Structure formats: C-alpha cells, structure tokens
C-alpha cells in the first residue's frame, strides 16, 4: 500500500482501465496542436510484416529509460520528446530486439523504420 492511497488489485481495476504501462498502443496521435513538439515516430517490421506485439522504449543520451509504448497493430510507435539525441529500443516476444539512435527537434517529426 502506498502512503495515502489504498492498494488496488488488478481484479478491482475499473472496466477499460489501462493495462501494463498505460500508454495507448502506438503512442498518442499527432494533432495540429502538437505542431511545435519534437516528435519521434516509426514502424517496426519483422520478416516484412508489421510487428504488432512488443514495445518501443525511449532512452536518453546516457541510455537511461524515459518512456515506453506498446507497438500499434501496424507496428507503429510515437513519442513526444525534448530536442536532442534519443535511442529507440524495440523489444518483441521471443527475445527479438533492435535499437537506433535518432535526433529530434521542435516542430519536426523524426521518422524511424526498424527491421528485425
């Protein structure tokens, strides 16, 4: 139990409550209001097919974990980040994984295509 908050078991979670990390699959949709943000987005394929199972992680310049989203049904992911150099690490069932470094800047969308 966390101080000030009662413990809630998984069985007590409200219907429709987020599971796992709570982020929507593929990341949050880009809207017109997000035009000034630094966006990192991409797709993951395995043997030419979208990898819909797995997670994309965002790591900072030192390799520290910052965020994670489940891959979307088309293998997509999206992060909103500060300007700078970031690493995208993709983890899939069965131990498959890949990573790539990308630069992000305000008002730009950094596109990443990863092939397992």
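^ structure tokens above, recovered residues below v
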């Amino acid at each position: 139990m966390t101080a000030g908050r009662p413990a809630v078991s998984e069985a007590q979670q409200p219907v429709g409550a987020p599971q796992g990390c709570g982020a929507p699959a593929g990341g949050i949709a880009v809207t017109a209001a997000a035009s000034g943000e630094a966006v990192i987005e991409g797709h993951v394929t395995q043997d030419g097919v979208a990898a819909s199972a797995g997670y994309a992680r965002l790591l900072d310049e030192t390799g520290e974990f910052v965020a994670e989203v489940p891959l979307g049904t088309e293998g997509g992911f999206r992060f909103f980040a500060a300007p700078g150099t970031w690493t995208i690490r993709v983890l899939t069932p069965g131990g498959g994984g890949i990573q790539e470094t990308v630069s992000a800047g305000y008002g730009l969308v950094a596109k990443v295509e990863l092939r397992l």
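The beta strands are 38-46, 49-50, 55-59, 65-70, 76-81, 84-91, 97-104, 109-115.
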